[in-house]
Amino acid sequence: MAGAKPTDRARRAAYEVLRQVHEQDAYANLALPKLLADWSLAGRDAAFATELCYGTLRATGTLDAVLAAGSNRPLAKMDDTVRDALRLGAYQLLYTRVPAHAAVSTTVGLVRSTAGAGSASFANAVLRRVAGAELATWLDRIAPDAGADPIGALAVRYAHPEWIVRAFAAALDDVPPPADATRDAAQDDAGRSATEDDAAPADAAPDEAGTPGADPAATPAAAGAAGAELRAALAADNDRPVVHLAARPGAIDAAELARRVGGEPGRYSPYAVYLPGGAPGELPELRDGLARVQDEGSQLVATALAAAPLDGTDTSWLDLCAGPGGKAALLGALVAGRGGRLTAVEAAEHRAALVRAAVAGLPVTVLHADGRAVGERPELPAGGFDRVLLDAPCTGLGALRRRPEARWRRSETDLADLVELQRELLVAACRAVRPGGVLGYVTCSPHLAETREQVRALLADQPVPLSAVDARPALGTDLPQLGDGPTVQLWPHRHGTDAMFLALLRRIA
Ligand SMILES: C[S@@+](CC[C@H](N)C(=O)[O-])C[C@H]1O[C@@H](n2cnc3c(N)ncnc32)[C@H](O)[C@@H]1O
User: Fold this and answer.
1) 444: annotated active-site residue
2) Architecture of the domain spanning 296-507
3) Which tens digit of pLDDT belongs to each residue from 171-216?
4) What is the pLDDT of residues 6-49, one digit of tens each?
5) Domain 1-238 = CATH 1.10.540.10
6) Which catalytic residues are annotated (predicted)?
7) CB-based burial of residue 221 (10 Å sphere; 0-12 exposed, 13-18 middle, 19+ buried)?
8) What whole-number distance in Å separates Cα of residue 216 and Cα of residue 235?
9) Where are the domains of the chain?
10) Phi, psi for 264 (deg, rounded to 5)
11) Residue nearest to atom 6 of ligand 1 (CA)
């Protein structure tokens, strides 16, 4: 790409990431920064590449529906390289202010260079059809009627798979009405944003620029009608998340960290700092271990476990699923302040290595082991721990805004295996906690099968004698909209955090 215009290199970088995501199961937030560096893309050009890449990945399902309608060839029969180029072109046409002629000609050029002249003329014909109507018109054409199929309509308009829309509706207890103003809200959410000259903020981090932001009118404050909060939750997934840092307790406080990095202290976690529009990049505070990039919701659930009332000893803590180590680092620093020690367990070897790096200098023992082995090895004694965190492997539906490809990669069929594993780990965590001790069950997912239903089944079965503890006071007093308890579900559109779930349970004998 040497010699090419920076905007063309930005498009090419976005396209290469799409290929890596779809061909090699790569993660965009890891692949993109490497390509930006390799191709010397910075500032506005890096922001443009990020916008195109993240936006196209987030909107893939909707773009595919448009392309299918605009093509005489089924998507499944298209060459993979052509399909990704068309997605990138259609994204520019429908979701950005890039001029149509530039979106079409650069995409056709890309297809010509990767797949030859015949494919280029096919791409040209499809994109000209796509360019023939605006997003709103396309949505009206391809989305099911909201009256007959409200979930299907929201799925297309907000670019989420239907099973995720259904899961959010159930978790929010906000089932959309048969017919409503869905169309207007979704169109505003999808409003045009980037041009070649006016892309995402020039200094936007590769992992934070994204599809255009949420509709202010779709916030819970403006909500009220059935389905309004669901729309706000879906829109928040398409919003550009603010980078959150966690100050390491005992090493630096949030106010000082905020001053040093030019951010602002978080609203809810005493350790949180927001970097609005900023890139964490090579901040010395991160390099020196004074802080980590960590969503405020993750900070809150870990600190809530540490804050839950406890009688007796409070020096032996366990993190049963610790990789890559964000919560272990926070808990390790907090238990250090109490003169105690954390044991951090992780089943994947490379992730156990990440935990070791994250907890360097803290009183933490890292075990590369299966968390279900509680009671079977001396380092994991049954009844040996005062506080136990189970941050369970889950669908990750609570962090879709940070992982642009994730919503299309996960499928509902993943759920049954995950729920079973969560259940086995929960039983192991119950064995690990001492009588009188506290167990925190956390998922980065609001799916009821992974959250409230999992806890309800555990309390019904009582593998050890357990009672529920109200998690709300342990989270602090400032958090709004925490519901009736005793469990807590955070949401991006309510709290600006990932959608973390927390249940606190006490072993009573
Ligand atoms: C949600 S992540 C944990 C995130 C972590 N607590 C943090 O804050 O960085 C779940 C982790 O559990 C690990 N895991 C999966 N199955 C496990 C098992 N049987 N025992 C222990 N760890 C497991 C996964 O490899 C993954 O790293």
Assistant:
1) yes
2) 3-Layer(aba) Sandwich (3.40)
3) 999 988 765 444 444 554 544 555 544 343 333 333 333 333 333 2
4) 888 999 999 999 999 999 999 999 999 999 999 999 889 999 99
5) no
6) 444 (nucleophile)
7) exposed
8) 10
9) 1-238, 243-293, 296-507
10) -135, 145
11) 322
